[in-house]
Design a protein that fits this description.
- The complex is a heterodimer.
- Chain A contains eight helices and nine strands.
- By secondary structure, chain A is an alpha+beta fold.
- In chain A, strands 1, 2, 3, 4 and 5 form a five-stranded antiparallel β-sheet that branches.
- Chain A starts with a strand and ends in an 11-residue tail after the last strand.
- Chain B is mostly helical.
- Chain B is built from four helices and no strands.
- Chain B is elongated and about 65 Å long.
- The chains are: A alpha+beta, B mainly alpha.
Chain lengths: 254, 110
């Protein structure tokens, strides 16, 4: 019989309902009450979820994907019935007693986090503008015979200025979009741009942000994003959500 | 209870609240990893693992986990230099190159 540990997905406020969702590692979701909080946990095999096991498994993208999606599914299920403070992946304790002791240490901060996100969900908005070309028809090598050296350099300089102007416009657009959206929501957090070469977008990501939106205001929020998208046809502006409030249910007060 | 709301782009998650509507399609893995690896409540469990230190075989996924800024903070900046070297090794390579150049200069009698 291998050692079992307690895997912590999220914390919510009492009273809570056990979510009907699959647990990681073929376990069973259960609730652990601690004062006014309820921890949502399941048992995991420490051979896989202990230090050595995790170090090995986290190198396997298929394992990581399965566990990340499984973790998020539990968090989302908890969010369906109350305020939730999602935990980061792989928060594992040797047993429930040790987990409750740790939760007790940050008890007031956890309560504050839950208050902050109650009745609200997180929406992600990204905006991508197309990349301005590398000076279009100017050859990288020697200038074409009909162009003088001076003309060639002038073209290169103009192309560079165009790129810089486009970058400035893109950054300004990102700022404007963020200001507009932020003014309508409870809280917002601007995130670093994702590498667009990896996300599959072509261009420059000028906005990557998370917005904390009241549930009743969600439709208005997505309508606003749609309106901003139609106002800026050169940009791809997308909202994704709702997410549980990963970016806002944090222990540090914003 | 509010009405379920789909994301305006037409893709992404279904509402996590209010009812049993199935998700239209799985969320983008990059977006999930961005959240579960780097956001949420972070407290020290009994199992210590540095999630940002994952040496995944697929470089692509590594850069999905951290932003480029954060990767550079961690010393991952191979796209700026030799793709085979970390920035620590890059520093060593540059030093070696400088020393070799210096030796050549000395040997040629400067």
């Amino acid at each position: 019989m291998t050692d079992r540990g307690t895997y912590l997905y999220a914390v919510t406020r009492a009273p809570a309902v056990t979510p009907d969702v699959a647990a990681l590692d073929n376990g069973t979701i259960r609730l652990v009450e601690h004062r006014d909080l309820v921890a949502v946990v399941s048992g995991v095999d420490l051979a896989d979820y202990g230090e050595q096991g995790l170090r090995t498994h986290l190198e396997d993208i298929r394992w990581l994907e399965r566990v990340a999606r499984g973790h998020d599914a539990v968090v989302a299920a908890v969010a369906a019935s109350g305020p939730v403070a999602p935990f980061r992946l792989a928060t594992v304790f040797f047993d429930d007693v040790r987990m409750r002791a740790r939760l007790d240490e940050c008890y007031p901060a956890l309560l504050r986090a839950l208050e902050r996100v109650e009745g609200r969900m997180e929406w992600s908005v990204k905006a991508v503008v197309p990349q301005v070309g590398e000076g279009g028809d100017v050859a990288a090598d020697s200038p074409p015979p009909q162009l003088s050296g001076a003309d060639y350099l002038a073209r290169k300089r103009d192309a560079k200025q165009q790129r810089e102007a486009a970058a400035d416009r893109g950054a300004a657009l990102g700022d404007t979009l963020h200001q507009t959206l932020s003014s309508t929501v409870v809280a917002s957090r601007r995130l670093p741009a994702q590498d667009v070469r990896l996300t599959g977008h072509k261009g420059t990501m000028v906005l990557n942000a998370a917005y904390l939106v009241d549930n009743e205001a969600a439709q208005a929020f997505t309508d606003l994003v749609a309106e901003l998208r139609s106002q800026n046809p050169e940009a791809v502006v997308e909202a994704h959500g709702p997410w549980p409030p990963y970016s806002f249910a944090t222990l540090d007060d914003p | 209870m509010t009405e379920p709301v789909a994301s305006s782009s037409g893709s992404g998650r279904a509402p996590a609240y209010g009812g049993a509507s199935a998700r239209p399609e799985p969320a983008n893995l990059a977006d999930i990893l961005e959240r579960v690896l780097d956001k949420g409540v972070i407290i020290a469990g009994d199992i210590r693992v540095n999630l940002l230190d994952i040496e995944l075989l697929t470089i692509k996924i590594r850069l999905l986990i951290v932003s480029v800024d954060k990767a550079m903070e961690m010393g991952i900046d191979w796209w700026q230099h030799d793709p085979m070297l970390t920035s620590g090794e890059q520093g060593l390579a540059e030093e070696n190159k400088r020393l070799r150049e210096r030796v050549e200069a000395l040997e040629s009698g400067d």
